[in-house]
Amino acid sequence: MARLQPVRGTHDILGEKAIRFRTIFEIFKNVAERYSHQEIDTPIFEFTETFKRTLGDTSDVVTKEMYTFEDRGGEQITLRPEYTAGIARAFISNGLQQSTPCKFYSFGPIFRYERPQKGRMRQFHQMDLEILGVEEPQADIEVLAVAADFLNDLGIGKHITLELNSLGDPESRSDYRDALVHYFTGHKGKLSEDSLKRLEKNPMRILDSKDDGDRELIKDAPRIADFYNQSTKDFFKMVIDGVEALDIKYVINDRLVRGLDYYCHTAFEFTTDQLGAQGTVLAGGRYDGLMEMMGGPKTAGIGWAAGMERLAELIADDLLIKQNRPVVVTPVGAEAQIPAMKLAHDLRVAGIVVDMAYKGNVGKRMKRANKQNASFAVLLGEEEMARGVAMVKNLDQGSQEEVSLSQISDYLKGKG
Ligand code: ATP
Ligand code: MG
Asked: Which of 148, 184, 236, 393 could make an SS bond with 377 (beta carbons 3.0 to 4.6 A apart)?
């Protein structure tokens, strides 16, 4: 027998939660479009290579979290574990290097095989924003501004801190990398197994380790700011000047690295203390090396992703999109059934939200109308039909009046 529960770490989205998601998405879309971003929708699965090559063999996502399977044609397929690689793939596939800069936004499900807990699911949803083809720090400032505006429009800006770091240009990174390898090699015996692997392949990722022993060692590890060359310093200063000019509050966190391997220069996270352990609501950075790594033309990129489920926990109820209260059409007597359906249809075509109770006597149907929080009930019986009218009850005031069928949609719109 089928197990009639959702798979662990997945959730149905219905009722108020669906309204929360829609509210947040609408606000995101508005902000993104204000910054002249265009919607993009990439497939929720790609060839496994697309993610494997780009995310790097040391990232948690690739090593532990991907939903990968072989399809019936023998292709290795992976369910989207993040947006950037798929969007970069789409940029290359569609030959968009001719039309840079490209400014995109997207929203949809993301799949990661994680240990489910509060704020951490196996299917969750991200809003994603990317700028492709801009090397200048203006793009960094702009994506940070979109993020800050978005969180402010959600009414949660004051509970959230922007943590900002620079991971440096390739030269600074490489010097820093050497220093980290030197330091951690000296403490090899105390490193976790995962971090030992990272030490060879991508030592910066050790800084992102959640292992307690690793965290102890990280405290005294070399700091990236000491390895910035002049061009990294200039770039980062410009970003900070921009962020300050736009009055976006931030703190520098020089231990912040991103979980994925392709980042450089600006890295950032917007975090809150209101969600317990999973406090990062939005995170991103610059990934100038990604496109080449995928075999495409050298193209700069920067972007971020925000977790829908975590944001949905934070927004206030009064922000939620209000759904129009329905008008309920109620036939009185068997003869009125079809004419009532016709009336309901006419009102719907006129743009009014209409529901019907499908069975029961008038009393039962009126009860249902109240339960649906209907604003008006429109009663149609044989006697009214003969005179070309219907009885319109105002359910808030308890009043009622007869309205001619030809006037009824204007009447309801006027009152609605
Ligand atoms: P973490 O360190 O918490 O695992 P991450 O670096 O894996 O985060 P990103 O890849 O940057 O996260 O994803 C961007 C955002 O998506 C996160 O800040 C978070 O809000 C959300 N997110 C990431 N993983 C999950 C998940 N498993 N369930 C729900 N939301 C998630
Ligand atoms: Mg993660």
From this structure: 393
The predicted-structure confidence for 147-196, as pLDDT tens digits, reads as follows 999 999 999 999 999 999 999 998 998 899 999 999 999 998 999 998 99
357 vs 389, higher pLDDT: 389
> How many other C-beta atoms lie within 10 A of the C-beta of residue 34?
11
**Residue with CA at minimum distance from ligand 1 atom 7:** 259
Number of Cα atoms under 13 Å in the Cβ half of residue 196: 7
Nearest to 86 by CA among 41, 138, 143: 41
CB atoms within 10 A of CB 258: 22
Please tell me the predicted confidence (pLDDT) of residue 364.
87
Secondary structure class of 339 (helix, strand, coil): helix
What would the two tokens of residue 285 be? 């950075």
Q: How many CB atoms lie within 10 A of CB 178?
A: 13
Measured between alpha carbons, how far is 50 from 44 in angstroms, rounded to an integer?
12
Residue pair 374/327 in contact (Cβ under 8 Å)? The answer is yes
Query: Is 164 a pocket residue for ligand 1 (Cβ < 6 Å)?
Result: no
**All structural domains of the chain:** 15-169+229-318 (3.30.930.10), 327-415 (3.40.50.800)
Q: Are 147 and 253 in contact (CB under 8 A)?
A: no
Indicate if the pLDDT at residue 61 is higher than 60.
Answer: yes
- 182 vs 266: CA distance, rounded Å: 25
Its pTM surpasses 0.85: yes
Q: Is 280 in the pocket of ligand 1 (CB under 6 A)?
A: yes
| Ligand 1 pocket mutation, candidates 66, 112, 207, 278, criterion most atoms within 8 A of CB | 278
∠ Cα 179 182 188 (to 5°): 135
DSSP for 242-297 reads HHHHTT---EE-TT---SSTT-EEEEEEEEESSSTT--EEEEEEE-TTHHHHTTS-
Encode pLDDT of 11-21 as tens digits: 999 999 999 99
Asked if 48 contacts 76 with a C-beta cutoff of 8 angstroms, the reply is yes
Residue type, 192: S
Cα 222 to averaged position of ligand 1 atoms, centre (Å): 26
Across the beta sheet with 45-47, the strand order is 45-47, 76-79, 68-70
In short, whether 126's Cβ falls inside 6 Å of ligand 1 is: yes
